[in-house]
Amino acid sequence: REGRRPLIAGNWKMHMTHLEAIGLVQKLVFSLTEQELDAAEVVVLPPFTALRSVQTLVNGDQLAIGYGAQDLSANDSGAYTGEVSGAMLAALACGFVVVGHSERRALHGEDDATVAAKVRAALRHGLTPILCVGEGLDVRRAGQHVPHTTAQLDAALEGLDAGQVEQVVVAYEPVWAIGTGEVATPDDAQEVCAALRSRLDGRFGAATAAVVRILYGGSVKAANTAGILAGPDVDGALVGGASLDADEFARICRTA
Ligand code: PEP
C-alpha cells in the first residue's frame, strides 16, 4: 500500500464510562509492543464523556496511540443544546473524529449535506475526519454499491481542495455488515475501497488518491483482519464491537 501507514480505529459507540475507558486503554497499550504500535497507527474513539480521561492518560504517559470522538457538531459554538464542537475536541487534543457513521445517518437523520458540513468543521479545527460511507442491503442486492458509495464520497467532499482531502480518512462500512457478524469478503472490501480511491483520483488527482487512507469497517475481528487487509486499497479497519475487548483489539492491531 505504497507508504500508507495502516490505521486501526476502535469505535466504542455508547459503551465505557470514563473509568472503564482508562482500564481499556491501559490494557490495550500494555499488550502491544512499541514495534507493533509503530507499524500500525492505533486509535480509540470513546464517548465524549471519556475523552478527557483518555487524554490525560495518553498524553500524561506519552502512550503511542491516538484518540478521537465519534461525532461533532457542524457548528463551532452557539445555541445547539447537547452538541459538541470541533473546537472543544481540538482543545482535548483529539486527533480524529468519526463523521457520517451509518448509525448517525440512520438514527439521527444525518444527510449528505450534514455530513459534508461536519467534514468541514473537523478540518477547520485540525481534526482528521474518519468519513464513513457504505450501502445498505437493498443497494448491495441491486448491485449499486459502487455508485452509491462514490456518490456519498462526492457529496461529503464537495468543494474541498486536494490539500484538504489529503487530511481525510475514508471508511467503507457496508451497513449490512455493521454489528451483524456478517463481514464483507476481502474481494468485496477491496472492490469498493479501490473504487473510492479511483474516484479520489478522478476528482482530486493521483497524488491525493495515493495518500488518502481508506479503511474497511463491518464486523472486523482478529480472525478476519488479515484477509480484509490483504486488499491493496484497504489501509486499515474501523472496528466496533471487537474494539471493546482489549485482547481482541490488540490482536487486530498486531495483524495490521
Ligand atoms: C462500526 O461501528 O463502525 C463497526 C464497524 O461496528 P462492528 O465492528 O461492530 O460491525
Key words describing this protein structure:
8 strands; binds phosphoenolpyruvate; TIM Barrel; single chain; eight-stranded parallel barrel; alpha/beta; 256 residues
Molecular structure report:
This protein is 48% helix and 14% strand. The model has no long low-confidence stretch (mean pLDDT 96). It has helices spanning 18-30, 34-39, 48-60, 86-91, 102-107, 112-124, 137-141, 145-157, 162-165, 186-204, 206-211, 222-229, 246-255, and strands spanning 7-11, 41-45, 66-69, 96-99, 128-133, 169-172, 214-217, 236-239. It has one domain: Aldolase class I (TIM Barrel). The chain has 13 helices and 8 strands. Helix 1 (18-30) crosses helix 3 (48-60) and helix 12 runs parallel beside helix 13 (246-255). The protein is an alpha/beta fold. Residues 11, 173, 178-179, 217-220, 238-242 line the site of phosphoenolpyruvate.
Break the fold down into its secondary structure elements and pairings.
Elements: E1 7-11, H1 18-30, H2 34-39, E2 41-45, H3 48-60, E3 66-69, H4 86-91, E4 96-99, H5 102-107, H6 112-124, E5 128-133, H7 137-141, H8 145-157, H9 162-165, E6 169-172, H10 186-204, H11 206-211, E7 214-217, H12 222-229, E8 236-239, H13 246-255
Parallel strand pairs: 1-2, 1-8, 2-3, 3-4, 4-5, 5-6, 6-7, 7-8
Helix pairs in contact: 1-3, 1-13, 6-8, 8-10, 12-13
Bound molecules: phosphoenolpyruvate.
Phosphoenolpyruvate (PEP) binds next to β8.
